[in-house]
Queue: 2 jobs
Job 1
Amino acid sequence: MSDTVKKVNLLDFSHEGLKAYFTSIGEKPFRATQIIKWLHQLNVDSVDQMTNISKPLRQFLTDNAVIRAPEIVMDQQSADGTHKWLLRLDDGNAIETVFIPEDDRGTLCVSSQVGCALDCTFCSTARQGFNRNLTTAEIIGQLWVAKRTLQADPKGARVVSNVVMMGMGEPLLNFDNVINALRLMMDDNAYGLSKRRVTLSTSGVLPALDRLADTLDVSLAVSLHAPNDALRDQLVPLNRKYPIKDLLAMCRQFLEKKTTERNHITWEYVMLDGINDSDANAHELAKILKGIPSKINLIPFNPFPETRYKRSSNNRIHRFRDILTEAGYTVITRKTRGEDIDAACGQLAGQVNDKSRREIHFARIERS
Ligand code: SAH
C-alpha cells in the first residue's frame, strides 16, 4: 500500500467535517475555514502554499494528508466552446464533466456516480452500467479541476457561474457525498454560488427527495419525460417503484417547505420522435402539472450509437412547446451544445470498469 492511500484527502472534507477533523487533532476549528479557502477559493494543490498556516500544522498535513482531485486524461473542446473532460479516478474508472459557456454564464455539468444504475432507456450512461458512487473529493474535485483549467485557458479565462448535477449518475442515490459537495459549492468560503445557480437533477428517488427537502436549499430539476405511468415505466424504469402520482405529491411537498429560493420545479422532458411528443402528450402534461409552480425544459433527444430512438423534429418540438405555453407554463427548449464531441445531455460515458454492479445496486433500490 502506498503512502497516499493511508492519508486523508483534504478535498473529501465538508467545511464542518474539516472543523471536526481539526478539533480531533487539537487544532482550532477556524483553521478549517482558512484551509477551505485555500482549497476551494484559491484551488492550491499543495499544503506548502498555505502561507497563513503555521509551519508545524503544515508539516502535520504534509505527513498525513493529500490534496487529490481527479486527473484530466482528455480535454476536448467543441466548435461552440463547450469543454468535455475525461477524468481518471484512483481506481482506474473514468467520469466525464462538461463546461457549457454562454454569454451571461458558464455552467458546469457534474457527475455523481461512475455509470448509473437507473437504466433509463434513452440515456447512454445507462448502457455503461453502474460501478460505484463518487466520493465527495471526486464530486467537488470536478469543479476544482474545471475552475483551475478554465482560469488558465490561453483563449481567455472563464468562470463557472452555475453547476448542474446532470452528469453521469443519479445524485440522490449518492446522498451524503452529493450534499457535502453541494454545500461546498454554496459556501462563501469555498465556491460561493447562490442556491439559484446550483441545480440537482433527479429521476425521482422519493425517500431521498424527502430527505433533501429537509437538508438543503438547492434548485430542483426532475426528469419527468412522460405524462403517464404507462409511458414513463418504459422510459424511466424507476417509475415502477415511484409512480408519477407519488412523485408529483412529493414535489408539491418539497415546494411547501418553502424558502425564498425554492419557488418552482424544473421538469425535464426529453423529446423522442413518435414516443412522447404528441399533442395529446403535451395536453396530458399540462394537466398533471396544474397547480405546481413549474418550468418545463424540453430537451431534444441526443442520439448515441445503437439507440432505438430519434430526436423529435423542430416543428414537433415547437408545437409541443406552444401547447404548454398556451396552458400557461414557462417552457425552455434546451439548446444542444457540444454535439460534435458527444458532450450533450445523455451522451456522457466515461469508462466504467465493472458494470455488473448495476443489478445489485438496483436491487437495493427496489428493496428500499
Ligand atoms: N440521474 C439524473 C441526472 C441525469 S442527466 C436525472 O435523471 O435527472 C440529466 C438529464 O439528461 C436528465 O433529464 C436525463 O433524463 C437527460 N437525458 C439522458 N439521456 C438523454 C439523451 N440521450 N438526450 C437528451 N437528454 C437526455
Job 2
Amino acid sequence: MLTGSKLRMTKQRQLILEELSKVTSHPTADDMYQVLRKKMPRISLGTVYRNLEILYENGIIQKLDVGGTQKRFDANIIPHYHIRCTICGRVADIHIEPHMELETEAKKVTDFDIIQHRVEFLGICPQCKKRQS
Ligand code: ZN
Ligand code: MN
C-alpha cells in the first residue's frame, strides 16, 4: 500500500491507518478520535484530523464526498459506491461494480475531460427501519 510513497509513517499515523483499515463504517475524524484515544490517551482530535487529511492527500485512504456535515474516511481506495441513511447518516458500501458506461455516455454529451464519477445511493438503514416500525 505504501510502496513508492515518500510519506513518513509516524507511530500515530500508522495507528490511525491501522484502526481505519479495521472498520467498514466510514468513520469521521471524531469517530476515529474516540477509538484512538483509548489506545493513545494523549492523542488530540486535531492530530487525528490532520493525519487523516495527510493520508488522504497521499492517496493512502479515501475521503468520502457524501452528504452530511462531517467528512468521512475509508481505507478502501478501490473505486466503489456508497449508500447513506437519510435518517442517521450511516454510510455503507454498495457491492456492485462501478458502471463505467456512465462515463462513456457522459463523454458523448460534454466537452469536459471526465476524470471519474461518483454515485451516492440514499436510503434508510436497517436500524432506522426497525425504529420506524
Ligand atoms: Zn439509519
Ligand atoms: Mn467504502
